[in-house]
Queue: 2 jobs
Job 1
Amino acid sequence: MVGSPQQITELLIAWGNGDESSLEVLVPIVESELKRIARNFLRREQANRTLLTSDVVNEAYLRLLKQREVRWQNRSHFFAVASIIIRRLLINHARDRLAGKRAGGELVLNTQDVEIVSPEKNVELISLDEALTRLAVLDPKKSRIVEMRFFGGMTTAEIGDVLGMTPASVTRQWNLAKAWLAQQMRK
């Protein structure tokens, strides 16, 4: 089920104002969008596919539901918050996988989605997270753009809407951030 940005915004605001029935309509719409975001990210991480799309979506959804104090401004704001949550989920998962390998822990493989597990991909994701954290100290806006684009799968227009920037400015900042992160990750 796909909802228009306007419909999602209206449902988010109604839910934020205490209308629980709007949540029933919102959930399937948001769930399909979260699946798309998770699938896009996990597709890039094929060699490290120990998470299923449904795992990421379910956990992100549960954490988003706990965000009751947030006053949702619109669809883009919601998915910007979702991108932060997805980033944290994926980084925590990567760290847990590496810790398990160092401790000699057993690998848990899903028999429906068995693939070779690559510790290098976990290291790369953690390295990206560390570089992104350093970037946030230097330039929080660039860091948010990377987070929303890379972890949240948001378009430049959606990011611009959240940050109050033109899509061209978002693209320029995205390109600068990518170059800076690439340089940092080579160190």
Job 2
Amino acid sequence: MTESRGALAVGTLLAGVAGCVDAIVFDRVADVFPANQSGNAVLLGIGIGHGAGSEAWRPAVAIVAFAVGVAIAMRLGRRVPRRRPAVVMGCELVLLVPLTVVVLAVSDLTDLDDLAIAALIVATACAMGMQTEVIRHVAGITVATTYQTGALVRIAELVGGDDPDHDRSPTRVVGLAVLVMVIVAYVGGAAIGAAAGSWSGAMLVPLAVLVALVAVSTRPRAVGDPAD
């Protein structure tokens, strides 16, 4: 039970981090999502359809960088399986520092040139790809902290299940609670990120969360390995 609660806390907080980073980068930096690659696929298609390379390169870079982040996290997981969450989240934390510095230091992010924007997209999308591998299951429920389409589908499946005998089963109730909490955290994180337009310190919130999670995950048996 304790491990499940710890995993739920980690998953919920990481979903909030993803929502915040998505909102900041989309709203203030690059018009793409570091975490939500379904949205980027649509943006890429729109750019191609418009015949506008200026619209297509940003989501394309984000998609590739996200995939690279997943691959790096998987390789790290094989090398340091017992410390995987702490190592992966630590790398994610480092990758998000440039965005934080820019948001805090630059008053008008529209002045950034394409090279700077590309670097920020690569760093943040890679960070979100790595985060995807930190945790995959909470209380036996498959969750993703960087995209929520799957969670919405799973909620609909649990609510609209064909077996009425399981409508109020503990497994179904727990599953719904976990998925709803992750989605709410993502939306809440996005709301915080949107506030970066008037409060540049908003980017410090996901960094503070990651620092806390890394610190807790390095303590023996405090969080365990939430990705298992």
